[in-house]
Write a structure and sequence with these properties.
Layout (H helix, E strand, L loop, with lengths): L1 H12 L13 H6 L4 H8 L1
Length: 45
């Protein structure tokens, strides 16, 4: 039981779910939209 709880905690603290390729946007994809790079950067901030 403790082992399963510890494994779950390790998985929760992991960063593996942050960098999901489906959620990423390339520069080419941004260029295909009507937004400029400056507009995208401003939206980010």
């Amino acid at each position: 039981m403790q082992r399963l709880e510890k494994e779950r905690e390790v998985e929760i603290r992991s960063y593996k779910d942050l960098m999901v390729s489906e959620k990423m946007t390339s520069n080419k994809q941004i260029a295909a939209t009507s937004k400029s790079f400056q507009e995208v950067e401003e939206d980010f901030m």
